[in-house]
């Protein structure tokens, strides 16, 4: 008799005996005695399982109690799932194209909850796919306001796909400013935002809808001015007087087929930050979130990894800043950390970390490249210090000099220039060495810790940035810069002191251990 037939006969005989011993109670006593109660297949299922082992059919799927599945030849099954998912994606694209021709409203079958069915994300969070129907979508509920829909859509885009606001049961009361409501973000654009930073097939209709969500130009000018006065002084990405006026003129007047979606995303991020720092708007308004998601959708039109450029780097930097400072998502810092690594690679791919005279750039453009790269370096270092992680860019691999903040067309108050010069110098001489010591595999010697502590404490602060020497009330941005300078030195000193305490503690432990060991030897 062939070996396979012998094995099959023995397996079937054992399975029949086990089925006879099964008491039809889950888990059966037979399995409990064998110590495998959690895997009890309950009689007949056991027979089917063992037979499938002897003669496994392609893609066999056998179930036991409690929806436990035993797979044979899972490779073919996963290939089939991938084929079906791709087919579903093609049908969704076709349905979206047809729907855009007959209506401005998204098709009920293209709700974000239903689009997640074909992805593995649905396996690890969110409601079950079988419970999702077009009629069950909360976005179509007439009893839910536009603000509630936007808030739910925003929180639904968290990393694990679960809504933080729904989980906590808390709701934020939002008072909108006089005579206005946040721009409505259509469902298909929210879907694009959810795919960030990966590209999505877009057409001019989507780009048109994103631009139509911009506020009136006069209002946009006011918001950008608030951003310049109340926020953009912290990171000097472009100090030219014509930067914001030219960007506004371009985005509002350029024909839609020639409009760069990345420049549009840059303007939307400035509007997002400006609306959040505008003192005339109430705290907690949804303008910032709406403009942020519109910017993410605009960025997705062109593949980031294939065609990076300076405009998209600028927009992504502002997205990093948004997540670090303005986002209320409790996972924003993790998202910002991952995005920082991605942006750092894009910057290095563009060669911003190298002095490249062969590029023959005009001085103004070269200053802008240096400014954004050094601001990226500074943000990366501070984030790494906060999280205790290695930086995405090592200063030892950089030879581009810090920006000078002077030149034709470059405009910034002298106090602001002093702050940025001090920030770059403080990063080079204090923050970067301290980060290297903190993330090193071997702990630094005690003398090195004392040296770093002395650098932090003795680092000179210009009198204009020293709040203790101020003689007259400062402007708003100068007051904030003085506060940041003070906090930077205090945080650095605190981290250095913590390192010293840990080092001294380890030394004391080592001395105590040595003393105990020597005493035991003497005795």
Number of E-state strands: 2
Assembly type of the chains comes to single chain
- Please bin the fraction of helical residues: 55-70%
Number of helices: 20
Radius of gyration: 30 Å
The major beta sheet can be summarized as: 2 strands, antiparallel
Mean pLDDT: 72
User: Taking strands numbered 1, 2, ... along the chain, how are they ordered across the largest sheet?
Assistant: 1-2
Distance between the termini: 76 Å
Q: What is the overall shape?
A: globular
Structural description of this entry:
With 523 residues, the chain is an all-alpha fold. The protein has three domains: 3-72, no CATH class; 150-164 and 182-412, no CATH class; 448-522. 58% of the residues lie in helices and 1% in strands. It is built from 20 helices and two strands. Helix 15 packs antiparallel against helix 16, helix 16 packs antiparallel against helix 17 (363-387) and helix 17 (363-387) packs across helix 18. The longest helix is centred in the last third of the chain and has 47 residues, at 476-522. Residues 74-101 form a coiled coil. Residues 144-154 have a biased composition (Basic and acidic residues). InterPro entries: Sec_Metabolite_Reg (IPR050613), XnlR_reg_dom (IPR007219).
Task: Describe the secondary structure blueprint for this structure.
Layout: H1 3-21, H2 29-33, H3 44-54, E1 61-63, E2 69-71, H4 74-102, H5 112-115, H6 121-124, H7 146-155, H8 164-168, H9 187-194, H10 204-212, H11 217-230, H12 243-253, H13 261-276, H14 287-299, H15 310-326, H16 332-349, H17 363-387, H18 414-439, H19 446-458, H20 476-522
Antiparallel strand pairs: 1-2
Helix pairs in contact: 1-3, 9-14, 11-12, 11-13, 13-14, 13-15, 15-16, 16-17, 17-18, 18-19, 18-20, 19-20
């Amino acid at each position: 008799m062939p070996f396979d037939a012998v094995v099959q006969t023995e397996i079937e005989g054992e399975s029949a005996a086990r089925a006879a011993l099964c008491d039809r109670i889950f888990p059966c006593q037979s399995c409990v005695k064998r110590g495998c109660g959690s895997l009890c297949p309950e009689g007949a299922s056991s027979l089917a399982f063992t037979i499938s082992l002897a003669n496994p059919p392609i893609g066999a799927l056998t179930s036991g109690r409690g929806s436990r599945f035993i797979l044979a030849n899972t490779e073919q099954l996963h290939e089939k799932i991938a084929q079906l998912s791709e087919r579903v994606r093609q049908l969704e694209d076709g349905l979206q194209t047809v729907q855009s021709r007959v209506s401005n409203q998204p098709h009920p079958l293209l709700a974000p909850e239903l689009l997640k069915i074909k992805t593995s994300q649905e396996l690890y969070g969110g409601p079950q796919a079988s419970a999702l129907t077009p009629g069950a979508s909360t976005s179509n509920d007439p009893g839910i306001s536009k603000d509630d829909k936007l808030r739910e859509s925003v929180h639904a885009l968290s990393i694990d796909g679960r809504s933080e606001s729904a989980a906590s049961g808390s709701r934020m009361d939002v008072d909108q400013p006089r005579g206005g409501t946040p721009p409505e973000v259509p469902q298909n654009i929210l879907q694009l935002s959810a795919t960030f930073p990966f590209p999505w097939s877009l057409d001019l209709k989507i780009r048109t809808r994103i631009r139509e969500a911009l506020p009136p130009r006069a209002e946009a000018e006011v918001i950008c001015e608030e951003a310049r006065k109340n926020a953009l002084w912290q990171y000097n990405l472009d100090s030219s007087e014509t930067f914001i006026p030219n960007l506004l003129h371009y985005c509002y007047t350029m024909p839609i087929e020639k409009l760069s979606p990345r420049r549009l995303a840059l303007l939307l991020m400035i509007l997002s930050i400006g609306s959040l720092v505008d003192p005339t708007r109430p705290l907690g308004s949804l303008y910032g979130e709406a403009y942020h998601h519109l910017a993410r959708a605009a960025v997705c039109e062109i593949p980031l990894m294939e065609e990076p450029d300076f405009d998209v780097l600028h927009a992504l930097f502002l997205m990093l800043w948004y997540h670090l400072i303005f986002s209320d998502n409790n996972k924003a810092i993790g998202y910002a950390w991952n995005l920082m690594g991605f942006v750092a690679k894009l910057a290095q791919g563009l060669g911003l970390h190298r002095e490249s005279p062969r590029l023959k750039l005009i001085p103004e453009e070269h200053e802008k490249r240096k400014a954004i790269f050094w601001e990226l370096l500074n943000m990366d270092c501070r984030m790494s210090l906060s999280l205790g992680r290695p930086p995405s860019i090592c200063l030892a691999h950089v030879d581009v000099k810090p920006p000078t903040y002077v030149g034709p067309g470059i405009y910034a108050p002298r106090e602001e220039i002093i702050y940025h010069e001090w920030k770059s110098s403080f990063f080079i001489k204090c923050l970067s060495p301290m980060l290297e010591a903190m993330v090193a595999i071997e702990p630094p010697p005690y003398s090195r810790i004392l040296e770093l502590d002395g650098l932090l404490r003795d680092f000179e602060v210009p009198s204009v940035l020293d709040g203790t020497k101020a003689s007259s009330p400062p402007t708003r941005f100068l007051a904030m810069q003085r506060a940041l300078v003070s906090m930077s030195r205090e945080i650095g000193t605190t981290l250095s002191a913590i390192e010293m305490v840990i080092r001294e503690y380890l030394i004391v432990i080592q001395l105590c251990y040595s003393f105990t060991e020597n005493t035991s030897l003497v005795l």
